[in-house]
Amino acid sequence: MSIGRLYPWHREAQLRLMTALNNHQLAHAWLFCGPEHLGKLDFALAFVSSLLCEKPRETGACGDCSGCRLLKAGTHSDLRILTLEEDSKQIKIDQVRDFLEWAVQSTQAGGFKTAIIWPAERMNRNAANALLKYLEEPAGNRVIILVTHQPDRLPATIRSRCQRINFVAPPRNEAIEWLSRDIQDTALKERIAELLELARGAPLKVKRLFTDEYLKLREEFFSGLGDILAGKKTPLKMAAEFEKADLANLIELWFELLWEIQRKDYRTEPAAALEQGIIGKIQQYYGAENIFRFLDRLSEARKMLAANYNLNARLILEELLIGWSERNDPSSPNTY
């Protein structure tokens, strides 16, 4: 098990937490939120590691003590991580109940007892309600961290009981400098600036996701959307072509593309080269109002995927693509 990693853009968050710890003002509940691929979970792991380390340094855990060795082995009894179980799309109440039973037990070394819930927005209603009761009456020397990129999906009662840290993308020059040092692939190095633009400034998305396979999927999907608008491809044919692709990934690509169009009139730099052609094609058919309406449709599909187990992904993709194609027909009503 990794004990986390700190990135250069974590400096402000690290300073805030370490100041609170050194002043004995560390809150019992924290909410780490912000866009995906900024290392929020890595930061949470690094911070709880420093709490459980027997010889912590100013920069965090020492990495060598017995506590750190237990963390690396994934066997430290004072750390609990609540996440999605296999084949589940929700964090369930039984998981939270097990955590609550664990939380009242004595600590191994008499120090902190820590927990991370990730992705916190995936707690179902019953699980969130059970957690709320704990947050209202926390035990001493317990620190719980909720990690999410969708904080608005958490109940307001939970958010209000957590100290919040917002993670933001680093300045462009800082991100490019870090990626240039960290990426070894020569082909990717030559495209860092372009890929960072595609990643909306999130350095870890460039490093972790932008493989040749991912970029090929992106290009083919965007091209297919353009072909549908131009009448060169039917929605059902495209749905069949992308049947094996992860629907959640396709929806996120769709979101990114449409938001890029919405940003086009306000940005100071041109869109990435991989998107310029499709943006121009979509603007021939879609006005701003229609784009916002389709974004609502994508948002509903994303919520359905997050909340349900046995949805027919092929059917959802077909319905989305049919709705997309109707934007090409001036007589089609702009409703969903």
Question: How is this structure best described in words?
Answer:
The structure is a single chain. With 336 residues, the chain is α/β, with parallel strands linked by helices. The protein folds into two domains: 8-166, P-loop containing nucleotide triphosphate hydrolases (Rossmann fold, 3-Layer(aba) Sandwich); 211-326, Zinc Finger, Delta Prime, domain 3. Helix content is 52%, strand content 7%. The protein contains 16 helices and five strands. It has a five-stranded parallel beta sheet, sandwiched between helices. β3, α5 and β4 (142-148) form a beta-alpha-beta unit. α11 (212-229) runs parallel beside α14 (273-283). The relative contact order is 0.10.
User: In what order do the strands lie side by side in the largest sheet?
Assistant: 2-3-4-1-5
> Would you give the CATH topology of the largest domain?
Rossmann fold
CATH architecture of the largest domain: 3-Layer(aba) Sandwich
Largest sheet: 5 strands, parallel
Count of alpha and pi helical runs: 16
Instruction: Round the mean pLDDT to the nearest integer and report it.
Output: 88
| Integer tally of domains | 2
Order of helices and strands: HEHHEHEHEHEHHHHHHHHHH
